[in-house]
Amino acid sequence: MVRRIIQIDREKCNGCGACAAACHEGAIGMADGKAVLLRDDYCDGLGDCLPTCPTGAITFVEREAAAYDEVAVLARKAAALKGSAPRQAPKAGGCPGSMAQAIRPAAASGAPAAEDGALSHLAQWPVQIKLVPVEAPYFDGAKLLIAADCTAYARSDFHRRFMRGRITLIGCPKLDEGDYAEKLTEILRRNDIRELTVVRMDVPCCGGIQRAAETALRNSGKFIPWQVVTLGRDGNILE
Questions:
Q1: What is the mean pLDDT of residues 81-99?
Q2: Confidence band (pLDDT; 50, 70, 90) for 85?
Q3: CA–CA separation, 170 vs 58, rounded Å?
Q4: If 0-12 CB within 10 Å is exposed, 13-18 middle and 19+ buried, where does residue 238 land?
Q5: Which residue, 2, 152, 124, is CA-closest to 65?
Protein backbone atom coordinates (compact mmCIF):
# COMPACT_ATOMS: atom_id res chain seq x y z
CA MET A 1 0.00 0.00 0.00
CA VAL A 2 1.06 3.62 -0.56
CA ARG A 3 1.08 5.65 2.64
CA ARG A 4 2.88 8.43 4.49
CA ILE A 5 6.03 7.29 6.23
CA ILE A 6 9.25 8.86 7.46
CA GLN A 7 12.45 9.07 5.46
CA ILE A 8 15.88 9.63 7.03
CA ASP A 9 18.60 11.45 5.12
CA ARG A 10 21.81 9.69 6.15
CA GLU A 11 23.99 12.58 5.01
CA LYS A 12 22.17 15.05 7.27
CA CYS A 13 21.95 12.72 10.29
CA ASN A 14 24.49 13.57 13.00
CA GLY A 15 23.93 10.39 15.01
CA CYS A 16 22.53 12.08 18.12
CA GLY A 17 19.85 9.39 18.60
CA ALA A 18 17.15 11.88 19.60
CA CYS A 19 14.71 10.51 17.02
CA ALA A 20 15.19 6.91 18.22
CA ALA A 21 14.43 8.02 21.77
CA ALA A 22 11.33 9.92 20.62
CA CYS A 23 9.85 7.07 18.55
CA HIS A 24 7.36 5.35 20.85
CA GLU A 25 6.86 2.49 18.37
CA GLY A 26 10.54 1.55 18.12
CA ALA A 27 10.60 2.06 14.37
CA ILE A 28 13.90 3.95 14.48
CA GLY A 29 17.24 2.53 15.57
CA MET A 30 20.91 3.39 15.26
CA ALA A 31 23.30 1.67 12.85
CA ASP A 32 26.90 2.69 12.21
CA GLY A 33 26.31 5.92 14.09
CA LYS A 34 23.30 6.93 11.99
CA ALA A 35 19.53 6.75 12.50
CA VAL A 36 17.71 4.18 10.37
CA LEU A 37 14.09 3.13 9.90
CA LEU A 38 14.12 -0.44 11.21
CA ARG A 39 10.67 -1.56 10.10
CA ASP A 40 8.03 0.10 7.95
CA ASP A 41 5.21 -1.58 9.85
CA TYR A 42 6.37 -0.02 13.14
CA CYS A 43 6.09 3.54 11.76
CA ASP A 44 2.63 5.04 12.35
CA GLY A 45 3.36 8.13 10.25
CA LEU A 46 2.55 10.60 13.04
CA GLY A 47 6.06 12.05 13.11
CA ASP A 48 6.89 12.40 16.83
CA CYS A 49 10.50 12.09 15.72
CA LEU A 50 10.49 15.11 13.39
CA PRO A 51 10.70 17.97 15.92
CA THR A 52 13.49 16.24 17.85
CA CYS A 53 15.87 16.08 14.87
CA PRO A 54 18.37 18.96 15.11
CA THR A 55 19.55 18.69 11.49
CA GLY A 56 16.27 18.28 9.58
CA ALA A 57 17.28 14.79 8.46
CA ILE A 58 13.75 13.36 8.85
CA THR A 59 10.92 14.12 6.43
CA PHE A 60 7.65 12.54 5.36
CA VAL A 61 7.34 10.77 2.01
CA GLU A 62 4.50 8.95 0.27
CA ARG A 63 5.68 5.53 -0.86
CA GLU A 64 4.87 1.84 -1.01
CA ALA A 65 5.19 0.53 2.54
CA ALA A 66 3.76 -2.16 4.79
CA ALA A 67 0.74 -1.02 6.79
CA TYR A 68 1.28 0.11 10.36
CA ASP A 69 0.97 -3.00 12.56
CA GLU A 70 -0.20 -1.95 16.02
CA VAL A 71 -0.33 -5.58 17.18
CA ALA A 72 3.34 -6.07 16.29
CA VAL A 73 4.29 -2.84 18.03
CA LEU A 74 2.45 -3.82 21.20
CA ALA A 75 4.08 -7.25 21.12
CA ARG A 76 7.52 -5.66 20.78
CA LYS A 77 6.80 -3.36 23.73
CA ALA A 78 5.64 -6.28 25.85
CA ALA A 79 8.78 -8.22 24.96
CA ALA A 80 10.92 -5.22 25.86
CA LEU A 81 9.30 -5.01 29.28
CA LYS A 82 10.27 -8.64 29.88
CA GLY A 83 13.82 -7.86 28.92
CA SER A 84 13.94 -10.03 25.82
CA ALA A 85 14.07 -7.13 23.36
CA PRO A 86 15.71 -4.14 25.02
CA ARG A 87 15.35 -0.87 23.21
CA GLN A 88 18.43 0.16 21.32
CA ALA A 89 20.21 3.02 23.03
CA PRO A 90 21.53 5.97 21.02
CA LYS A 91 24.99 5.38 19.63
CA ALA A 92 27.79 6.71 21.83
CA GLY A 93 29.28 9.90 20.53
CA GLY A 94 25.97 11.58 19.70
CA CYS A 95 25.03 14.99 21.02
CA PRO A 96 22.26 14.94 23.67
CA GLY A 97 22.66 18.71 23.92
CA SER A 98 21.18 19.11 20.45
CA MET A 99 17.80 17.62 21.39
CA ALA A 100 15.04 20.15 20.75
CA GLN A 101 13.17 21.47 23.76
CA ALA A 102 11.11 24.47 24.76
CA ILE A 103 12.28 26.50 27.76
CA ARG A 104 10.20 28.70 29.99
CA PRO A 105 12.28 31.89 30.15
CA ALA A 106 13.44 32.81 33.64
CA ALA A 107 11.97 36.26 33.10
CA ALA A 108 8.51 34.73 32.63
CA SER A 109 8.74 32.39 35.62
CA GLY A 110 8.88 35.01 38.32
CA ALA A 111 12.42 33.98 39.23
CA PRO A 112 14.44 36.54 41.18
CA ALA A 113 16.80 38.61 39.09
CA ALA A 114 20.52 38.10 39.25
CA GLU A 115 22.65 40.64 41.10
CA ASP A 116 22.99 42.75 37.97
CA GLY A 117 19.24 42.59 37.32
CA ALA A 118 19.62 40.30 34.31
CA LEU A 119 17.16 37.51 33.48
CA SER A 120 17.32 35.01 30.65
CA HIS A 121 14.77 35.31 27.84
CA LEU A 122 15.93 32.17 26.04
CA ALA A 123 12.78 30.24 25.05
CA GLN A 124 14.14 27.11 23.33
CA TRP A 125 17.14 24.85 22.78
CA PRO A 126 19.22 24.50 20.66
CA VAL A 127 19.83 28.00 19.35
CA GLN A 128 22.50 27.44 16.69
CA ILE A 129 20.99 27.55 13.19
CA LYS A 130 22.93 24.43 12.17
CA LEU A 131 21.50 22.44 15.08
CA VAL A 132 17.91 23.65 15.41
CA PRO A 133 15.25 21.38 13.85
CA VAL A 134 13.27 22.69 10.88
CA GLU A 135 10.00 21.87 12.65
CA ALA A 136 9.26 22.22 16.36
CA PRO A 137 6.21 23.15 18.46
CA TYR A 138 7.89 26.30 19.73
CA PHE A 139 7.90 27.70 16.17
CA ASP A 140 4.08 27.78 16.02
CA GLY A 141 2.96 31.41 16.08
CA ALA A 142 6.51 32.50 16.94
CA LYS A 143 8.29 35.77 16.51
CA LEU A 144 11.68 34.71 15.17
CA LEU A 145 15.02 36.34 15.94
CA ILE A 146 17.98 35.51 13.70
CA ALA A 147 21.11 36.96 15.26
CA ALA A 148 24.78 36.98 14.37
CA ASP A 149 26.87 35.41 17.14
CA CYS A 150 28.71 38.59 18.06
CA THR A 151 25.63 40.74 18.57
CA ALA A 152 24.85 39.39 22.04
CA TYR A 153 28.32 40.45 23.19
CA ALA A 154 27.94 43.95 21.83
CA ARG A 155 24.94 44.87 24.03
CA SER A 156 24.50 44.04 27.69
CA ASP A 157 20.71 44.24 27.33
CA PHE A 158 20.50 41.83 24.38
CA HIS A 159 18.15 39.39 26.13
CA ARG A 160 15.70 42.08 27.18
CA ARG A 161 15.98 44.21 24.04
CA PHE A 162 15.90 41.51 21.34
CA MET A 163 15.22 38.02 22.72
CA ARG A 164 12.21 38.76 24.89
CA GLY A 165 9.12 37.10 23.41
CA ARG A 166 11.08 35.62 20.50
CA ILE A 167 12.54 32.29 19.41
CA THR A 168 16.26 32.89 18.96
CA LEU A 169 18.51 31.43 16.25
CA ILE A 170 22.20 32.35 16.06
CA GLY A 171 24.98 31.82 13.56
CA CYS A 172 28.16 33.21 12.06
CA PRO A 173 28.27 33.16 8.24
CA LYS A 174 32.05 33.62 8.29
CA LEU A 175 32.81 30.65 10.54
CA ASP A 176 29.99 28.19 9.78
CA GLU A 177 30.20 26.05 6.66
CA GLY A 178 27.53 26.42 4.00
CA ASP A 179 24.64 28.82 3.60
CA TYR A 180 21.78 29.20 6.07
CA ALA A 181 19.25 30.14 3.41
CA GLU A 182 17.98 26.63 2.62
CA LYS A 183 17.35 25.69 6.25
CA LEU A 184 15.81 29.05 7.12
CA THR A 185 13.53 28.69 4.11
CA GLU A 186 12.25 25.37 5.42
CA ILE A 187 11.73 26.79 8.92
CA LEU A 188 9.65 29.65 7.49
CA ARG A 189 7.80 27.39 5.06
CA ARG A 190 6.89 24.62 7.51
CA ASN A 191 5.97 26.69 10.56
CA ASP A 192 3.59 29.50 11.43
CA ILE A 193 6.20 32.23 11.90
CA ARG A 194 4.49 35.57 12.57
CA GLU A 195 7.41 37.98 12.51
CA LEU A 196 11.13 38.00 11.73
CA THR A 197 13.91 40.18 13.17
CA VAL A 198 17.52 39.96 12.00
CA VAL A 199 20.22 41.44 14.23
CA ARG A 200 23.70 41.80 12.74
CA MET A 201 26.92 43.70 13.30
CA ASP A 202 28.10 46.47 10.99
CA VAL A 203 30.91 44.30 9.59
CA PRO A 204 30.81 42.98 6.00
CA CYS A 205 30.79 39.28 6.91
CA CYS A 206 27.55 39.78 8.84
CA GLY A 207 25.88 40.58 5.53
CA GLY A 208 25.74 36.82 4.95
CA ILE A 209 23.21 36.25 7.71
CA GLN A 210 21.03 39.10 6.45
CA ARG A 211 21.16 37.80 2.86
CA ALA A 212 20.28 34.28 4.02
CA ALA A 213 17.24 35.57 5.89
CA GLU A 214 16.11 37.70 2.93
CA THR A 215 16.55 34.75 0.55
CA ALA A 216 14.60 32.50 2.91
CA LEU A 217 11.74 35.00 3.04
CA ARG A 218 11.54 35.13 -0.76
CA ASN A 219 11.81 31.38 -1.23
CA SER A 220 9.32 30.52 1.50
CA GLY A 221 6.51 32.15 -0.48
CA LYS A 222 5.17 33.78 2.69
CA PHE A 223 4.58 37.44 3.51
CA ILE A 224 5.98 37.96 7.01
CA PRO A 225 6.70 41.31 8.69
CA TRP A 226 10.46 41.63 9.08
CA GLN A 227 13.19 44.05 10.04
CA VAL A 228 16.97 44.21 10.15
CA VAL A 229 18.76 45.82 13.11
CA THR A 230 22.44 46.65 12.67
CA LEU A 231 24.70 47.15 15.71
CA GLY A 232 27.89 49.10 15.79
CA ARG A 233 30.91 47.58 17.46
CA ASP A 234 30.19 49.84 20.43
CA GLY A 235 26.74 48.27 20.76
CA ASN A 236 24.76 51.24 19.48
CA ILE A 237 21.89 50.60 17.07
CA LEU A 238 22.75 52.15 13.72
CA GLU A 239 20.16 53.81 11.51
A1: 50
A2: very low
A3: 22
A4: exposed
A5: 2
Helices (H), the chain: 18-22, 70-81, 151-154, 158, 181-190, 207-220
Question: Out of 36-45, 108-117, 134-143, 167-176, which region has the weakest mean confidence (pLDDT)?
Answer: 108-117
Q: Does the N-terminal peptide bond of residue 90 adopt cis geometry, omega within 30 degrees of 0?
A: no
DSSP E strand boundaries for the chain? 2-8, 28-31, 34-37, 58-64, 101-102, 124-125, 143-148, 167-171, 195-201, 226-231, 237-238
Q: Are 185 and 215 in contact (CB under 8 A)?
A: yes
Contact 177, 168 (CB under 8 A): no
Q: How far apart are CA 216 and CA 219, in angstroms?
A: 5
Nearest to 98 by CA among 75, 124, 70, 65: 124
Structure-model confidence comparison of residues 169 and 134, the more confident one: 169
**What is the pLDDT at residue 15?**
85
Tell me which residue of 65, 101, 83, 80 sits closest to 26, measured CA to CA: 80
The tally of CA atoms less than 13 A away on the side-chain side of residue 126 is: 19
Q: How far apart are CA 17 and CA 167, in angstroms?
A: 24
Q: Please check whether residue 198 is in contact with residue 146, taking contact to mean a CB–CB distance below 8 angstroms.
A: yes
pLDDT over 70 (residue 93): no
Domains of the chain, earliest start first: 2-96 (3.30.70.20), 100-238 (3.40.50)
